[in-house]
Amino acid sequence: MAKKKDVLKRQFKRHKKVGKAPGTITYMGHREAAETKVTIIEYTDSLHKIHYPGDVGQIVAHKDTPTTSWVNIVGLSDESFIEKVGFHFGLNPLILEDIVNTQQRPKIDEYEDYIFGTFRMVYINDNNELIGEHVAMVLMQNCVLVFQELDYDVFNGVRDRISAKSGRIRTKDTDYLFFALLDSIIDNYFVVLEHISHKIETLEDELYENPTPEVARNIQQLKKEVLKIRQWIFPVKELVGRLIDSENPLISKDTKFFLRDALDHSYEINESLQIYREMAMSLMEMYMSNMSNKMNEVMKVLTIMSSIFIPLTFIAGIYGMNFAHMPELHWKYGYFLIWGIMIVVFIGMVFFFKKKNWL
Amino acid sequence: MAKKKDVLKRQFKRHKKVGKAPGTITYMGHREAAETKVTIIEYTDSLHKIHYPGDVGQIVAHKDTPTTSWVNIVGLSDESFIEKVGFHFGLNPLILEDIVNTQQRPKIDEYEDYIFGTFRMVYINDNNELIGEHVAMVLMQNCVLVFQELDYDVFNGVRDRISAKSGRIRTKDTDYLFFALLDSIIDNYFVVLEHISHKIETLEDELYENPTPEVARNIQQLKKEVLKIRQWIFPVKELVGRLIDSENPLISKDTKFFLRDALDHSYEINESLQIYREMAMSLMEMYMSNMSNKMNEVMKVLTIMSSIFIPLTFIAGIYGMNFAHMPELHWKYGYFLIWGIMIVVFIGMVFFFKKKNWL
Amino acid sequence: MAKKKDVLKRQFKRHKKVGKAPGTITYMGHREAAETKVTIIEYTDSLHKIHYPGDVGQIVAHKDTPTTSWVNIVGLSDESFIEKVGFHFGLNPLILEDIVNTQQRPKIDEYEDYIFGTFRMVYINDNNELIGEHVAMVLMQNCVLVFQELDYDVFNGVRDRISAKSGRIRTKDTDYLFFALLDSIIDNYFVVLEHISHKIETLEDELYENPTPEVARNIQQLKKEVLKIRQWIFPVKELVGRLIDSENPLISKDTKFFLRDALDHSYEINESLQIYREMAMSLMEMYMSNMSNKMNEVMKVLTIMSSIFIPLTFIAGIYGMNFAHMPELHWKYGYFLIWGIMIVVFIGMVFFFKKKNWL
Amino acid sequence: MAKKKDVLKRQFKRHKKVGKAPGTITYMGHREAAETKVTIIEYTDSLHKIHYPGDVGQIVAHKDTPTTSWVNIVGLSDESFIEKVGFHFGLNPLILEDIVNTQQRPKIDEYEDYIFGTFRMVYINDNNELIGEHVAMVLMQNCVLVFQELDYDVFNGVRDRISAKSGRIRTKDTDYLFFALLDSIIDNYFVVLEHISHKIETLEDELYENPTPEVARNIQQLKKEVLKIRQWIFPVKELVGRLIDSENPLISKDTKFFLRDALDHSYEINESLQIYREMAMSLMEMYMSNMSNKMNEVMKVLTIMSSIFIPLTFIAGIYGMNFAHMPELHWKYGYFLIWGIMIVVFIGMVFFFKKKNWL
Amino acid sequence: MAKKKDVLKRQFKRHKKVGKAPGTITYMGHREAAETKVTIIEYTDSLHKIHYPGDVGQIVAHKDTPTTSWVNIVGLSDESFIEKVGFHFGLNPLILEDIVNTQQRPKIDEYEDYIFGTFRMVYINDNNELIGEHVAMVLMQNCVLVFQELDYDVFNGVRDRISAKSGRIRTKDTDYLFFALLDSIIDNYFVVLEHISHKIETLEDELYENPTPEVARNIQQLKKEVLKIRQWIFPVKELVGRLIDSENPLISKDTKFFLRDALDHSYEINESLQIYREMAMSLMEMYMSNMSNKMNEVMKVLTIMSSIFIPLTFIAGIYGMNFAHMPELHWKYGYFLIWGIMIVVFIGMVFFFKKKNWL
Ligand SMILES: [Mg+2]
Ligand SMILES: [Mg+2]
Ligand SMILES: [Mg+2]
Ligand SMILES: [Mg+2]
Ligand SMILES: [Mg+2]
Ligand SMILES: [Mg+2]
Ligand SMILES: [Mg+2]
Ligand SMILES: [Mg+2]
Ligand SMILES: [Mg+2]
Ligand SMILES: [Mg+2]
Ligand SMILES: [Mg+2]
Ligand SMILES: [Mg+2]
Ligand SMILES: [Mg+2]
Ligand SMILES: [Mg+2]
Ligand SMILES: [Mg+2]
Ligand SMILES: [Mg+2]
Ligand SMILES: [Mg+2]
Ligand SMILES: [Mg+2]
Ligand SMILES: [Mg+2]
Ligand SMILES: [Mg+2]
Ligand SMILES: [Mg+2]
Ligand SMILES: [Mg+2]
Ligand SMILES: [Mg+2]
Ligand SMILES: [Mg+2]
Ligand SMILES: [Mg+2]
Ligand SMILES: [Mg+2]
Ligand SMILES: [Mg+2]
Ligand SMILES: [Mg+2]
Ligand SMILES: [Mg+2]
Ligand SMILES: [Mg+2]
Ligand SMILES: [Mg+2]
């Protein structure tokens, strides 16, 4: 339970920003979120190097070199560091604000020299927690800057393809790298969808087997997760579409071709999410119908027991009366006669309930 | 039950692709799904031949011959074979990826030399299972490539019309063949709709006769099926519309005329699915209302039995008390008087319940 | 009940067409649906004749005469006859297919020499059944062809206005006749709406007076009828709009003026159907709330009876015990004291339930 | 109750028109609706006269005078009178039909010499009934014709402003008068919204205090009213928008400025209606939840009473048995011991229910 | 409770305006709402002064001075004062009407010399009440007029940034000030969203712990709040978009850049509100499911108690009968045998209920 609460409650920090000037760089995540780690992967078709720069100078050095550099910055809590990086790479303060705003809605902003985008990297981390991590990416002529909050990411496939000498990515420009990272994020949405789909099936099974209130609570939780994920993922299809329509020379016609494939996937993901949403709502209905069934069963037991024994008890009560003059009491087989009557009543009631299909 | 689970769970394999480069050809279906079978139907107005090619070379030979060739490839698990075919026919790797991706959303992609489309062929197979089979089709100048996962298909009508010497199809070009195949897929959607419609009627009847929890579960299952089919069928109307608006010379004006008829059907199918969706939701409501009715009936029996016998038992209890001084006990007709009172009470209660319409 | 099932189940024949070539003329209605009857009303401002042609030749003769001819063909089961008519009037095979396809969705297709439309003629027939009859109409230079499935139609008003010498229709062209027929169909939708509205009011009244499960079933049936009618009527507003925007010289500016009035009505009908749909859904909610009320009433009776007599019976039970030493039993007024206590308990319970407003 | 039925049932007369030619002037309201009353307010900035014309001639005289004349015609049942007025003012028969069709959907039609509009004047009349009165207005160069069904209207504010010498309206043209009347209708929608809002609050309060079935029925009634009002008001925002976009010289740029203000209000009204609709639906949910609460309370009383006294009665029953050998019966304090046990059981049960929070 | 009613009921005054001429300045808020307070903040990059003008003349003096002046007017009940200010600043009467109409829907109107906008400033005031305060702003060449109803506002951040010598705002024009104020309003929406989100979580927790009818009522209240807030906030995103697309020279390209950031936030807020709306609806469902669970629990207790003790009491009743000939009564161990039987029945029932998982 704790896990999900954490995930769902991350957005409670916007009040920090009220009244501040736009462009004020305010980190919205967990302050304790550790030091900043920077890794640079530099490559051409014939070159592949990994750098761990010691200061901002070593980072900025990659800005204008003709090689392709992927600057990966993990940890957004050091606002002054982000500001310095932004300043040297010539980024607009509004963008810097969006980079450290971990609640930023996915967006694409085009500037003259670079294209800026933020997305939600949604994944199941090593502790099996569902995480919606804010990631910001800047596409420039010779490098791609990636800012992410947490160490974990979904980019290892891209790293592998870069380090594999023969990969197509090594022969391509920064726009293809930008696409490849975005594609990894989108591909991973399918994994999250499988996770949701699996959760729905599990809840559905539990529902039929043992519909405890806990199950209802989990259904509720699932609905909130689906809503949240939809909010994170929904804007992506429009953003990818805008990249495809963009006339910015930073994105080649060839890369747009690949982006169209990603657009395709974005549509599919949205449709699936829509279906999962409807399924999640159906689960609650099923839960209510199961409750109703249980109640019916309970009521039948009560009704059968009461309807059989209450009349019998009444008969016994009659002959427990102490009237001086009760002829039956003195009949020789009165007691046995009464037993006979009671057995007949019993059988009659059982037949009645059989006929009603309650037994 | 098993059947439907199978159908609904087919989409759980996307994680296989995370991190792979776009254009990586990864089969997403059942690996065990058997060897690849290729059949080529070659025809002109005066010619009709069926080939079973032994290798890729014999397939590719049909690429540029002036006859019309329908290359039908069944089985998508042999990725290297698909790759070879794709290479020789000059297909883009992204397309090859979509061909073997059995979870691919229906789509149309136009290239310079060919038009690529994937669709869901939805049908009830010989085991009475509802199948949503991925099928990919490529329209080229002189041939139509069809890639499908399973042996069963809905194209026998087209095969018959080709083999019938006098059919219109024999006088037409590949674009008409492409249309005819698509038309068969769409026509078959009507059969699936009839299946759904029949299921709704059956469930509705069961609902009134014997609303077991099993029925509720089947309604739930039906809702999921309708959602799934909608996801499969929904994009088709837009795709057909795009073909009609396309300026690609591969599609003649004459064929567009026929496509408009298919478009018509696509709209009708979508509207009907929408109705079935609403009906399926209504079924659950009916189920709940039936539960409520049953409960009311159970409660009435309990209430009638209790309300009649509890007061009577109380009266009997009174005269079962052992007080030394209870004058009634010694009256000569006390016992019979009490019987009289009890009968009056009984009749009174029966009248009361009659008046309330509970009896 | 039988009636409605009939109406709702008419669409179960689409599988007949799977695999057939487009343009194959396959009647989808009731095969037994009798012979074909043709009537021709021919008129100008000064002329009015009714013909009952014996063969196709006598029908086709009206194609090019300068008078206005309304060719009314009842019965669509004779496919070869329809084909012959179509051939002589120069109609496209795809249109002939739509004429005999009694499940065809309402549509308008414009051709060079004629405009083709199919609609649903919805009416309550003489047996008080709700019928959604397929009707196809072709507007040509000098005649209007009307194909309908059943004898009954809603065109008697138009026939009267034609036979009335002074009617505006006699001075107008075929496009106005086409409009007048369409207008009759649309006007009749209002009658069906009144029928639906009346049904809703009736069900609502039944709901409050005697909410039997039968009522729930009728509500369900009503919802299905509304859904079906909406599917039939919904496309009409778009079709009329398209006729108005058409640049086809067959439709005069003057007639478009009248079509705008029909468009107006189409919008109104759609809005009303939407409202009836919401009302029908509300009925089910009301039904459930009434069930809940009934249940509450039942439970209150049970609770009141039980709560009053169970404690009293307990008191009686106490003094029915056979202990050797029970002082109260030997008190002179013990029995009357106990009666007193029981009366006090009884009154107390009654007060309690009064206070709770359950009595 | 009677009142609302009246309002909601007014639309049941459309069948009167089936088969009639378009442009046939058929009054759809209450035939008995009294004689026609005509009032003409004529004004310029320096002139203000009220006329009660005796015949159509005296009315038509105002058509071409340079003063501004507001011709107000109350009562639409005299079809031949309306026809005569229409003829002399040069109105299209289709318009005359719409004027007397009291079920006409709100619409605007522009003609060369005049602009025609019908609206719903929704108000609470002097008998506190909610009325949706059909009103038709024609804007001409020198006069505005207003046709209304009932005597009551919402135009008194406009009459006052005209009679007040200094009002802006006296200096303006007919288009401003047309706007002022429309504005009065729209302003009055706010009053109806307040009425609905008040009804919702009242029902909500009743719901919590005393949720009788009557309340459920009133909620249902409210939902129908909101649906109806929405149908009446919904088209207005589009109509006003169309007037603003119109290039008709009858409407000055200055008046469009005021129309924009009315457009503003139309949007607001639609949004509020949407909210009221959602609130009305919520009321029913609240009702059901209250029913559920009541039921729970009833059941708790039953369960508590039964669970406490049934075991006690059993204990008393044990010692009411007549076995020859029952040692406890002969114990000196057996009776008191049993009382002790029963008190312990009683206290135990009370504690149990306290713990469950049922007491 | 009182608080929310207040907030929700503020719109009940529109009837005041019915029949008045448009442009009539009618204050719609609380008449008692105190005197008008005016503050002027005047600044350039090198200057910063705060004025408390004594009369309208001192206010209007700022209209044409080259410094940037923020004229903040608190209190809208003095209609003649507002009229005077409006007259001297050259504002259109329709605008003055909107300024004092505290129910005005958010809007933007562009005039030649100024841009007028009204918004809802939504905040939690010092008494922890949710307030939706009407605020109107006029952007002119050299000053920004702000009209607000209540003393409290969300602009203190802007005031601080102006008074801080080095802030960006000091170097910018009135359009930036206008943006900064709007941005403060929008930023504060996030705070309100957090409040709503917090309320949802609180209600959800209460729901599981103690689902009293009070909780249901609070959920209902929450739904109404979300609806209301949505109505207030919804138009903002379109208004900001319109400012961005405006070609009015009053808004510089640079400021549009910042407005785009605000647009971004508007979208995010709308999406979140949509989610909160769905969550609020889910809460009610959860409540109903919890009610159902409680009921099930109650019924189980009743059924278990009744089913166990009713048969036992029957057995005791049997041997409480007074028949002369009842052999068992005279068996030596008859009494103990009966106890044995009763214990067996008891254990049997307990096992039965264990097996049903009710214990
Ligand atoms: Mg989350
Ligand atoms: Mg969430
Ligand atoms: Mg989540
Ligand atoms: Mg894909
Ligand atoms: Mg998918
Ligand atoms: Mg999926
Ligand atoms: Mg499914
Ligand atoms: Mg499915
Ligand atoms: Mg399926
Ligand atoms: Mg259909
Ligand atoms: Mg169908
Ligand atoms: Mg068709
Ligand atoms: Mg139907
Ligand atoms: Mg129907
Ligand atoms: Mg029907
Ligand atoms: Mg209507
Ligand atoms: Mg109607
Ligand atoms: Mg329910
Ligand atoms: Mg009309
Ligand atoms: Mg209504
Ligand atoms: Mg109404
Ligand atoms: Mg009304
Ligand atoms: Mg409002
Ligand atoms: Mg309002
Ligand atoms: Mg509020
Ligand atoms: Mg306004
Ligand atoms: Mg609210
Ligand atoms: Mg509110
Ligand atoms: Mg933002
Ligand atoms: Mg957010
Ligand atoms: Mg948020």
From TrEMBL, chains A, B, C, D, E:
One of its GO terms (molecular function) is magnesium ion binding. It is a multi-pass membrane protein. Keywords: Cell membrane, Ion transport, Magnesium, Membrane, Transmembrane, Transmembrane helix, Transport. SUPFAM superfamilies: CorA soluble domain-like, Magnesium transport protein CorA, transmembrane region. It holds the Pfam family CorA. The chain crosses the membrane at residues 301-321, 333-353. The keyword Acyltransferase does not apply. The keyword Membrane applies. Its main location: membrane. It is found in: Cell membrane; Membrane. One of its GO terms (cellular component) is plasma membrane. Belongs to the CorA metal ion transporter (MIT) (TC 1.A.35) family. PANTHER family: CORA FAMILY METAL ION TRANSPORTER (EUROFUNG) (PTHR46494). Mediates influx of magnesium ions. This is Magnesium transport protein CorA. The gene is corA.
